[in-house]
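job 3f2a | input accepted
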Amino acid sequence: MVIGMLELGPLRALHAVARTGSIHAAARALHLTNSAVSQRLARLERDVGEVLLEPHGRGVRLTDAAQLLAGHAERILALVDTAQTALEHHRGAVTGRMSIAAFASAGRGLVPMALADLRANHPQLRLEFHEQEPDVSIPLVVRGDIDIAIVQDWFNVPLELSDEVRRAGLLDDVLDLALPADHRLAGRAEVDIQEVAGEVWVSWPTGTICGDWLRHTLRGYGVEPRVAHGVAEYSTQLALVAAGFGIAVIPRLGREPLPPGVTLVRVRPVLRRHVYAVWRTQSAHRPALAVAVEALRCQAAAPAAELLPA
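job 3f2a | predicted structure (310 res):
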């Protein structure tokens, strides 16, 4: 698409560099290579006849001309979003690009069937999926690089969102306790968290949303968590539990089959995380966004009785 002599692709690249501070960060935000971003910026320099980037330390910085153009680019891209929404309403059909980001277990448990539903009912919609944690996906939504992010917070650690985004609740996901089959509590139907708070845990690494939540929760019971094994993949957590190296809490959403040697029991009080879809307030009226959120809601409402511990 061309506006006068300026193409939107190079303008998006300049806007991303201005927003993120580097070509590398802009490339990540736009899901492009560094080379592709540099090529777009070089094209923009040729189009406007101005130098837009200059060396600065190990990176680059925007020239005065680039900063002026970047300010206009932000308004132009916002107008393009408005025009896209109006055009979709005029056509009466759901079209365009719809990009969804989700953390791993939501990516397994919600996204594939929701995308299949969208593809069947809205074949003109171009669908993209990216597996990303909320601390990455929410800024991408705010910047307009991702349309919808599926994010989570916890019953005792709520998620703070700015007015730039809206949210819709999808489901409350319960976590169960994973124990080695020969654990002293493995025969119980339910275990109080205080009974196991001081045990050795297999959990997410420090600095991750889920890992920091578990440590915060256990400290609430007056126990300094003994997290001996920090791994992000649930399958690896369960393999370590099966081998007797600790216990873990495992969400029901996107749960994979249990390996031999692992028993699930319910936890009291219930450990629960809230799962949301979030999108830019500015894009709220897009028909494509409305049908995508509804597809996610329908999938989230599907029965999941098979995920309950015996």
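job 3f2a | Residues 305-310 have pLDDT under 50 and may be disordered.
job 3f2a | closed
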